[in-house]
């Protein structure tokens, strides 16, 4: 396997990553990676929040609505 390794000189300045060609590619890849990780975490958290909200509704609100068959 004779593969060349490309050296990238990347500098970070005030949160923006630029290479020697002043390309945004590395910066965009980094931001995309961070965002995709956070959306996964948020999706899992939302499932938990929805299930907790549903349990609260079922235990604290629904009994009042169904008492004596109001619904």
Task: Describe this protein's structure.
With 71 residues, the chain is mostly helical. It has one domain. The protein is 59% helix and 8% strand. It is built from 1 helix and 2 strands, in the order E-E-H. The chain has a two-stranded antiparallel sheet with strand order 1-2. A hairpin with a 2-residue loop joins strand 1 (11-13) and strand 2 (16-18). The longest helix is centred in the middle third of the chain and has 42 residues, at 25-66. It is rod-shaped, with a radius of gyration of 25 Å. The chain starts with 10 loop residues before the first strand and ends in a 5-residue tail after the last helix. 0% of the residues are buried. The model has no long low-confidence stretch (mean pLDDT 79).
Secondary-structure blueprint:
Layout lengths: L10 E3 L2 E3 L6 H42 L5
Antiparallel strand pairs: 1-2
Properties at a glance:
71 residues, mainly alpha, 2 strands, rod-shaped
């Amino acid at each position: 396997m004779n593969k060349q390794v490309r050296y990238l000189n990347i500098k970070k300045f005030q949160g923006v990553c630029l290479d020697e060609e002043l390309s945004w590619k590395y910066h965009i890849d980094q931001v995309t990676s961070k965002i995709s990780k956070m959306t996964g975490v948020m999706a899992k958290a939302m499932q938990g929040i929805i299930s907790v909200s549903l349990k609260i509704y079922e235990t604290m609100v629904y009994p009042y609505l169904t008492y004596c068959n109001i619904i």
